[in-house]
Structures are given as C-alpha cells and as structure tokens.
Please model this.
Amino acid sequence: MGKADLDEKSTEGAPRGRDFIREIIDADLQAGRHTQVVTRFPPEPNGFLHIGHAKSICLNFGLAAEYGGRCHLRFDDTNPTKEDVLYERSIAEDIAWLGFDWGEHRYHASDYFERLHDYAVELVEKGLAYVCSQTLEEMREARGTVTEAGRPSPDRDRPVEESLDLFRRMRAGEFPDGALTLRAKIDMANANMKMRDPALYRIRHAAHHRAGDAWCIYPMYDFAHCLSDSIEGITHSICTLEFENNRELYDWILDNVEIPLPRPHQYEFARLNLTHTVMSKRKLLRLVEEELVAGWDDPRMPTIAGLRRRGVRPSAIRAFADMIGVAKANSMVDLEKLEYCIRDDLNRAAPRRMAVLRPLKVVLTDYPEEKTERFDCPDFPPDALEEGATSTSREVPFGRELYIERDDFQETPEKGYKRLAPGREVRLRHAYLVTCQEVVRGEDGEIAELRCTHDPASRGGKAPDGRKVMGTIHWVSARDALSLEARLYDRLFLPERPDAAEGEFEDHLDPDSLKTLTALAEPSLKDLPPGGHVQLERQGYFFADPADSAAGRPVLNRTVTLKDSWGRKDAPAGKPAPRRPAAEAAAPALRKVSEAARELAAADGLDEAVAEALCATEGRLALYRAALEAGASRETAGKWIANVLVAQMDEAGAEALPFDGAAFAELCALLDAGTITATAGKEVLLEMVGGGGRPEAIVEARGLARVADGDALASLVSEVLAEHPDELERYRAGKKNLLGFFLGMAMKKSGGAADPGALRAALQEALDS
Model:
C-alpha cells in the first residue's frame, strides 16, 4: 500500500482537520461557556493499555495542548477486585512514553470516595435513590426489554430514613457482598435501559490498593465518573461510542446533586477497531492468562507495552492517530495503515545494515583465500536523509566466503525470478557482480553451498561495460559474521475480524506469528545498543530488545516488514489455527519478570500477585529483603509493600523513603503481634513515609495501640452513645440495625485502634443494657 492508497495523512506539526469535537470546543469558547479547555483520560487500572486507548490519549492530551488547556490523568479505581498497582504503573509509563505529561494533575476516583458518598446520601435524602435488596440476577430479570417496561423493585418506595440507615450500615460493613445495593430512582419504563433505576453503589468486602480496607462499599462507574469530572472541573468529557447511552445518566446525576457551574458535558467519538486484532481487555487478559502469548508486553499484542517492545516509536502511534482522525461512526481500520505509519516513521530513524536470516554459503572460487576488502556502505539512502543531514557510512568486510539469503537462490528459477540461479549474474550490494557456476549438495541432498565467480572490474557493484544484471542481493562475510537471534513477529490473528470468525477467538491465532531464527549479520551490528533501531536491508525494520540484548550481541525483534508482504493469508476454510501455538513458540526470555515473581512466590510462600508487585522494581525488592533480614515475616512484609506502600514508593522512589528495612520490619512485627490494627498500621506507615521515625514511637505518641481492654472500650462506647442520643433512642425503640452506625462511629473515634470484635461486643452490651 503506497501513499496514494491511504486516506489523507496529516503529519506531525501540520494543521489538524476541524472534526466535530473541535467544532464543539470552538463554539463553547466563542460563546463563553468555558474559558479554558480541561479534558481527562480516565483508565481503569485493571489491564494494560492498547492501541485503542492510545487514540483516546492522543485526542484528549492533544486537545488540551492545542487549546492551551490541561488534561488530567485519573485512575477509575472503583472496583478493588479487579485492580492492581502494576496496571496503574504501566498505564502511567505508557502515557509518558507516548509523549504526554499530566503534570500535577494525576488523580484517582478513590481521592473522592468521601465526597461521592456524600453525593449519594444527598440523592437518598431527596428521594432520588433507595437501598434495594434484590440480587443482581433479580435486578436484571426485572429490568425489562427494549420493548417492555421494567418492574419496580419491592424496595423502590422504601422510606428515606430507612434507606439512609441501611446505607450507613452498608458502609459500616454490616452486610455481606451482594446483599444490598444503592439504586437511583429514575424510571423503570425509560426507553434507555441505563435509566431503569441503575445501581449507584455495591458492597465489596475487598481491600483497595490505595484505600486499604477503609471502605466496603464502592461507587459504580457511571456514578463516580460524572461526579469526578465535576470535582476536577473537566469541561469536555470525551469517550467512545459505547458510552453514548450512558450520557443520559451522566446528565441526570449532575442535574440532581449540588455541583458548581459550569458543569462538564460528555461527547462520544468512534472507537478504534483494527483488522487482525482483538481490542477487548477481557480477551487480551485471556491471551495472557492462558499463556497464548508471553505476557502483556509480548510484541504481538496490541498493547502499548507490546508495541514498544516490538520497536514501534511513539511518534508513529501519534501519526497513526492523526491519520485515522476523529469520527462519529464506528468503522474497521486496516492494520496496514498502522504498519504504514511505522515504516514511514522508521525510514529516517533506522540506519541500514545487512543480515542474512536463513543463510546459504557462497564461495568465490576466483577470489584469494586470505584477502579481505572493506566496502564503504551508506547508513541511509539519499531519499531517507533528514533535511540538512550529512550522509554517514560504515565499513563492511568482504572475503572469499560469504553468506546470502537462501531465498535469493533458485536452482530452477520460476518465471519472473530475478535473483541468483545457475549461470546467472547478480549484484552483491555495494560489492561485486557474481555468477553462480556450481551447486554443491550435502549428504541429505539439500543445497549446502554455491560456488561462484566475481568480476573484479565491477568493484562497488557497477558493471564496467554498462551491462544489465538480473537483481541485487545482500550478503555478509562468513569470516566476520556476527551471530544473533532474530525474532520475526507477525500479526497475531489470521482472519481480518477474529471476533466475528466462527468458533472461539483463540482458534484463529496464526501459528506463524513468531519465528525465532539464528541470523548472521555484518559485524557493525555488535554496536547496536539495547533499544536501538535498524533496517536490515530487504528484510524489514528491527529493534534491539531492551531486556534480552547484551553488549555486543543484540536480540532483534522485527518491528515491521518493508512492505505488506503478509497479504491476506487467512486460514483455510474448515482449518482453524491450532490452539496455543503462540505459547509454544514464544521466546522464554520474554517471561523474565513473571518467572522471577514465580520463583520468589515459591521460595517465600507468597501470593504470586504480591511477588509480581515486589519484582516490578528493584527498590521494592530491596526493601522487602532488608525487612526480612531485620526479622519481618515474609507474608506481612510482602503484602504491606505490595498493597499499601507501593503508591508512595511509586511517587517518590524507594531510595527516597525516609526509613529503612529495620523500621519497616518493626511495623510488621507490631501488626503480627496484634499490637496495632491494620487501620492504625496504615496511619503509622503514612507518618513514616512523610517524615520517618520508628513505628513503636509513633504508636505511643499518637495512642494507636490496639484497644482491647474492657474498661477502655466501655469508656469509648459511653462517649459515642452520649454524642448520639437520637440514634440511641431509635435503637432502643426497635431500630436494631443502628448497631452498624454506632460501630462505625466508635471505630472512627478510636482512630482505628479499637479491636473490632471486642468493640462490637462492648457496644452490644451497652446498647442492650
């Protein structure tokens, strides 16, 4: 596919088209509805970002830059059962790698949990939300269809005070998961199914990776999203078309709570769909978990991490986002457009080198055995030089014995074949014209060697008499060749639309999506650093794997071929690709981090997720090891670093923490001994992060030691009951469900130091006396 075959391509720095979103922003600014454009990118930290997210990142951050505004990074961390700090870290790394900076505007939905809770209470107080006891299945069954109205919940007319009481008890942890939800009271006959009394809060007794166990109720996405936009002052909340039906609920929530003006508005654009690709995070996770690929950063994955590992540059992704533009209707984009942008970007960035992937030996019988020549070979052809750049070159050794590509010789050439054949003359690039005189076979009957002659007068590859030759091929000197590993990556799926193909999507994996070869290259490639780009002439663009390359021995990942030679190699009808070919072919080196985590988990008896978090950075692992040396238990040290401390470490770096492994071990010992509760432990850790200090001293100074003494708890309970006489009167009048309220108030008053079980018993005794 050439330039003429592609849609209009906008290059970096060129004026962008006035798409419908920019027209909306122009109108808003002109009318004075907003004075500054504020956008946001709100990922869920439950997976790695993919190329579809990259389109949204480029749009949101690009609009902010174009209009002199700002773009926020906000993690939508409202579902603790699926979220992980590893995903959060990877998301931030991906956005920064793409070239975008959120500055000081990095937020989390969890930053607003208290305010979101207050907004929920406001809706209940206004009679616009109620606590529902229906199960999830019952809610779905009663929702109705697009042609039939839903049936109201039996709890829809629950009195406001009763819903408020139940909601307080939900927060206090009195009910199990799924027992109750908080639902908006809207319209069970609304044509938009999203408006049929949607859930706003659900119970999840799960530790949050930032909030710990402070909450056991969590807001739903639709409730948290619009209010987080309002809290942050977002002006244009831009999302993909699958959220179009959510916009009515977005507006309803903002219409019915007290928020500052101007309020945000949601706009939808077409998501990115690529051929030969799946974009569902759920399906990408299945590929990883079932080991059909070698991890989230497998170079065949459409994740940003995978594209980066493959050697794609951020400038190519930004150019691709510009090329496809912003539309209102979903469509399928040919993967070749992305590959075109990658080639176009690397053309001026990747110096040329020669390497043979499938070597065939050539002996020049008329060339002196001990002679070595060196040819000056340009790093870039003239049309690939940047404007004003000076041409550079390297010397390539040449000798009697060479290697050429096996595909560059045919004993019986087919029609149109223009490379080497018996009796045929071709050009060795930058060197000589050679003619094949003899074919030598090995014991297995396969061609083992070609014996050729050269024309000494053709040095540099030019025919002295102006004669034409059939073709030009590349080569390497056998004596000087550098042996290296080359990984030939291709499209992961055979059909254009693997989601729509018959059977499971995994059935359509391309068994040839990865081939690992031992290649022979010109010796200058030993200087290619990890993360370096190169074009292997006539082969494609390659990238020195940053994890697996070593000094003097790069491991090359093929980023993209030189042209679309892949074509339409769909699987034959009735013959789906075999399951799990990718896992069998994947290079073991791509699993280094996971293997390290598995080894640590097995050696120390840790959960694999905890071990993965510890192995993610050297700082975390060093602190963990130091704490163990100081006597900390493996389980407590691992969990508290991975689940509690990791956010602070990611912000400042482990070396910047103002305490050492011994101090952290002391905190672990206090937790294991039951001297402090987990809630109090987080308070201690927060103070340690802020200014250091010894945990025991902090506990003593702040009175955070676990309170389990009967007299102390009785005194605490008496104070709480005295502060809430109205609730006490209602409890004794029969509102026994207020126990959860009193328990929450007492725990808060103790600063989290009270033993929960002992406190509940003391409360029960005092309330019933």
Summary: Residues 1-16, 565-593 have pLDDT under 50 and may be disordered. The radius of gyration is 33 Å.
